């Protein structure tokens, strides 16, 4: 029997060491939760208490070892209680602990060093151990962390049973004749060690499960919240798309109205310069309307492939002039994405250049050809418009031109941060080079 008690104590010590390693690994893995570090410290105190108890049984009785064993045991379970409260987001009552631990320490010291009584120490330890067990049980039951309800219930049940057992032990110890030491042959002592062994394993298992349940629950909550936010964002985006389409549609309708008014006004004016000015304004508004029309029909409201906008724009501009359908248009536009602002400026520039060609370049030219190219070399855009018409007059300088259309081309080119140049190959050629923001 004596050998069995010592063997059980050694097994309990090594089991607590393994449990301490498991709790330490859990703490290192999930540092996000407060209190888990105190669990590790509590287990280390259990190991120290068991070690001092075993040493006191193997050696001659030492009051100091008896005092240390009891203080480490009660200190360990209270440290565990404090860690659980912090894990649940609650504050521990430190003053109550200091008062209780002080009274317990004084009583243990008295019954160890002054009036040595193993029976009194057993009763004190059992009552202290059961009291803290009930405190932990109560804390877990009233805890408001919803993800750990099941594991907290299991842990509460274990601690409740453990607390009840140690109260029964205190009562039996008070009734029965006193024993000499913890390792004196006794069925109760074997049961105590077995209860500590079984309860310790369940305690460790429940603590680890409790942390993992909380972690998994919070991850699921975060995923659910992300999903809800995504659905909300998709709904908002859908509403914004509808609103944006409505805005574009209204802008297009307003521009159509403006074009109609300009057309009607030009028919009522007899002054040729005024008619030309109204026609030019109508052409410019039509160019802007095409951009909004393309954006309205596209699902991409912040960008658009250049060919989808510029090619139909150029063709529609030419078709708006008498004889425009007789003009052969060659386009070489790279397939790349442009933002609306750059598209807008580029579209207006092309509109002005094509308008200028149709007005001035094809006098006495039977086969009319226009080449439009837009090349993209690592976001360096080269826009070139070329015709086979009569070319620029001698000494022409586009930077000093007085025509409103070409002045607008120069101004928009500068806004794009570009450089503009002119050539007279077999007709005229205007090239604009600018950098597009990536």
SSE layout:
Elements: H1 2-29, H2 36-58, H3 63-87, H4 94-114, H5 118-142, H6 149-175, H7 187-268, H8 272-297, E1 304-305, H9 306-319, E2 328-333, E3 337-338, H10 340-360, E4 369-377, E5 380-387, H11 404-415, E6 419-423, E7 428-435
Parallel strand pairs: 2-4
Antiparallel strand pairs: 1-3, 4-5, 5-7, 6-7
Helix pairs in contact: 1-2, 1-7, 2-3, 3-4, 3-5, 4-5, 5-6, 6-7, 7-8, 8-9, 8-10, 9-10, 10-11
Brief characterization of the structure:
With 438 residues, this protein is α+β, with helices and mostly antiparallel strands. The chain contains 11 helices and 7 strands. The strands form 2 sheets. Strands 2-4-5-7-6 form a 5-stranded mixed β-sheet, with helices on one face. The chain has a two-stranded antiparallel sheet with strand order 1-3.
Structure, described:
By secondary structure, this protein is of the alpha+beta class. Helices cover 69% and strands 9% of the residues. The protein has a five-stranded mixed beta sheet with strand order 2-4-5-7-6, covered by helices on one side. Strands 1-3 form a two-stranded antiparallel sheet. Helix 5 packs antiparallel against helix 6 (149-175), helix 7 (187-268) runs antiparallel to helix 8 (272-297) and helix 8 runs antiparallel to helix 9. The longest helix is centred in the middle third of the chain and has 82 residues, at 187-268. The radius of gyration is 45 Å and the shape is rod-shaped.
The overall pLDDT average reads 86
Give the termini distance in whole angstroms.
84 Å
* Cα radius of gyration in angstroms: 45 Å
Trace the largest sheet across and list its strands: 2-4-5-7-6
Total count of domains: 2
Described by strand count, sense and barrel closure, the largest sheet is:
5 strands, mixed
Note the beta-strand portion.
5-15%
Helical percent range?
55-70%
Low-confidence stretches: none
Name the overall outline: rod-shaped
Content-based structural category = alpha+beta
Q: Give the topology string: H per helix, E per strand.
A: HHHHHHHHEHEEHEEHEE
Number of beta strands: 7
Tally of helical runs: 11
């Amino acid at each position: 029997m004596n050998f069995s008690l010592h063997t059980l104590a050694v097994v309990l010590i090594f089991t607590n060491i393994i449990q301490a390693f498991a709790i330490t690994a859990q703490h290192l893995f999930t540092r996000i939760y407060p209190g888990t570090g105190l669990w590790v410290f509590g287990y280390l105190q259990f190991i120290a208490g068991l070690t001092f108890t075993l040493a006191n049984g193997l050696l001659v009785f030492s009051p100091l070892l008896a005092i240390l064993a009891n203080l480490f045991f009660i200190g360990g379970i209270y440290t565990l209680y404090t860690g659980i409260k912090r894990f649940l987001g609650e504050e521990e009552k430190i003053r109550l602990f200091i008062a209780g631990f002080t009274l317990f320490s004084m009583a243990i010291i008295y019954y160890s060093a002054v009036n040595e009584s193993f029976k009194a120490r057993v009763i004190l330890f059992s009552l202290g151990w059961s009291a803290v067990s009930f405190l932990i049980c109560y804390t877990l039951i009233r805890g408001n962390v919803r993800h750990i309800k099941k594991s907290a219930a299991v842990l509460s049940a274990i601690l409740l049973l453990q607390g009840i057992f140690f109260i029964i032990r205190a009562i039996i110890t008070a009734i029965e004749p006193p024993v000499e030491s913890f390792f004196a042959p006794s069925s109760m002592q074997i049961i105590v060690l077995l209860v500590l062994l079984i309860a310790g394993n369940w305690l460790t298992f429940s603590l680890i499960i409790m942390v993992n349940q909380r972690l998994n629950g919070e991850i699921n909550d975060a995923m659910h919240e992300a999903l809800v936010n995504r659905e909300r964002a998709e709904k908002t985006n859908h509403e914004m798309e509808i609103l944006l389409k409505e805005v574009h549609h209204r802008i297009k309708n307003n521009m159509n109205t403006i074009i109609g008014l300009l057309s009607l006004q030009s028919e009522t004016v007899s002054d040729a310069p005024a008619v030309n000015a109204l026609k030019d304004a109508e052409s410019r508004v039509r160019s802007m309307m095409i951009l909004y029309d393309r954006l309205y029909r596209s699902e991409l409201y912040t960008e658009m492939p250049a060919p989808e906008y510029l090619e139909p724009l150029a063709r529609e501009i030419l078709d708006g002039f008498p004889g425009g359908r007789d003009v052969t248009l060659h386009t070489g536009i790279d397939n790349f994405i442009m933002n609306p602002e750059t598209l807008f400026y580029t579209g207006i520039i092309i509109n002005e250049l094509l308008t200028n060609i149709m007005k001035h370049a094809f006098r006495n030219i039977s086969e009319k050809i226009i080449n439009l190219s837009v090349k993209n070399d690592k976001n360096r855009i080269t826009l070139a418009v070329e015709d086979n018409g009569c070319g620029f007059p001698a000494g022409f300088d586009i930077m000093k031109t007085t025509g409103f259309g070409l002045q607008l081309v120069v101004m928009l080119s500068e806004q794009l941060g570009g450089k503009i140049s002119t050539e007279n190959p077999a007709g005229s050629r205007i090239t604009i080079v600018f950098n597009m923001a990536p």
